Amino acid sequence: MDVLYKIFIEPFALMGSAPDLLVQTVWEGLVAGVLYALIALGFVLIFKASGVFNFAQGIMVVFAALTLVGLHEKGVPAWLAVILALVVMFGLALTIERVVLRPLVNQPDIILFMATFGITYFLIGFGESVFGGNPKVMIADELYLPRGVTDVEMLGGRVSFQHLDVAAAIIASVMIAALAVFFQYTRIGRALRAVADSHKAALSVGISLNQIWVIVWFTAGVVALVTGIMWGARSDVSFALEVIALKALPVLILGGFTSIPGAIVGGLIIGVGEKIGEFYWGGLLGGGIETWLAYFIALAFLLFRPQGLFGEKIIERI
């Protein structure tokens, strides 16, 4: 009976008695959720173009952030380092298209999926050899990312808003909105949707599959760089960020692998769910809920709605 009370009554009683703590928890979850959505967007773009889950997106976040910090450590000014990091990500996209993707056109999806594993471990080894394995400090001050905190009196208590979290939420939201508009209403976006439907059909109407893949992988690289800057400013830049980036997998399962709105909604659900679960039920379950709750939620969705909230239900004739 005591266990049932702690599970079903005590957390909600605490929410009602300390609403300021609930607002604080939800805010932190929203910030994490927006960043999860930004990571998931990189997966969505590549999945829409190739029909394959890009396992390498996580390490691309780490590689982009390490490139930026590594260039600055070599004496390159911060904003020039950002531009050069984008050039590196474009070169990476071009190399992946020429060396990996072009020879695998019209191959089974599992072949392309396994190719992303190869890209992942190549970038891990190459990154460690160039940048080393030690964590690095993100150049947040040099990029004029805000520091400090603002306390707001509300609901009988005080809610703290980290300026970095506010900036991260705004930057991520603007980028998500801009990419959504770009791929929904531009010629490239229409070509991307055609490629997603059928590689052969897209080629038959004159769409260059190779160019689309370069554009999409470079866009995913830009997303990876922004994500790496935001997450790196909240913690150190290290290969551990790859694990955080893979939180996009449950986000995609919730929202649907081909849906940009789904990536946004899924990211917010996962972010807020993790924070609330950790704060109100973490003590009962021994803590560490944030490491596995997202995957538990994803498993529940796979059982009852495998296509996700915004995914298309596939119907095949037999």
Features:
318 residues, mainly alpha, ABC transporter involved in vitamin B12 uptake, BtuC, two-stranded antiparallel sheet, 14 helices, 70% helix, globular
Could you characterize the architecture of this molecule?
The protein contains 14 helices and two strands, in the order H-H-H-H-H-H-E-E-H-H-H-H-H-H-H-H. The protein has 318 residues and is mainly alpha-helical. The protein has a single domain, classed as ABC transporter involved in vitamin B12 uptake, BtuC (Orthogonal Bundle), CATH 1.10.3470. A two-stranded antiparallel sheet has the order 1-2. Strand 1 (149-154) and strand 2 form a beta hairpin.
Distance between the termini: 51 Å
Order of helices and strands: HHHHHHEEHHHHHHHH
Proportion in β-strands:
under 5%
* Count of distinct structural domains: 1
CA radius of gyration: 21 Å
- Estimate the mean pLDDT confidence: 83
CATH topology: ABC transporter involved in vitamin B12 uptake, BtuC
What form results from the Cα inertia axes?
globular
Membrane topology: Multi-pass membrane protein
Protein name: Branched-chain amino acid ABC transporter permease
InterPro entries: ABC_transp_permease, BCAA_transport_permease
GO cellular component, one term: plasma membrane
